[in-house]
Amino acid sequence: AMTAGGKIGNFLACPFDAMGSTMATYGGQNVGAGKLDRLGKGLKSCVLLGVGYSVIAFLIAVFFGGPLAQLFVDGGEAEIIANVCAFLLWNTAFYIPLALVNIVRFLIQGMGYSKFAILAGVFEMAARTLVGFVFVPMFGYPAACFASPVAWIFADCFLFPAYFHVLKKTKKMLSEPVRTSVA
Description:
Layout: H1 2-12, H2 14-32, H3 37-69, H4 78-92, H5 95-110, H6 114-139, H7 141-145, H8 147-175
Helix pairs in contact: 1-4, 2-3, 2-5, 3-4, 3-5, 5-6, 5-8, 6-8
């Protein structure tokens, strides 16, 4: 169920990768041009797009989760199909935090702060480890369904303060006069 659900979930999440790549380019171009005021506007637009697509992905999981599961699982395996559907519902219900992870992480990376983007991945890994070692033994499969949503929320809790930090740092850096030395 995890394998089939993961494949379907990864397919449904592909647009978030495209949004992230777009924001990396957008962030780099606007920092390079010194147009930091555009970053917030672009971030807002992409977040709205991510929220809209998240709703669509959730509706796909609700109405087509079973048929999609049957692409990977024999139709007679009712319990496994039900588990795939549960996995898809719980994951797609949290696609807004996933959209935010990709959008904000790649924006930060595009602005030139790749260490913060890497640290967000560390937060995700820590959350998945916590769920795997603590909650899966206690609650079983339902807890496994929540591993990624918990990871996305952990990453977002790091990424939003990080974004405002790097924005402030970048504004300060761009406002300082360029010093040249005459040889």
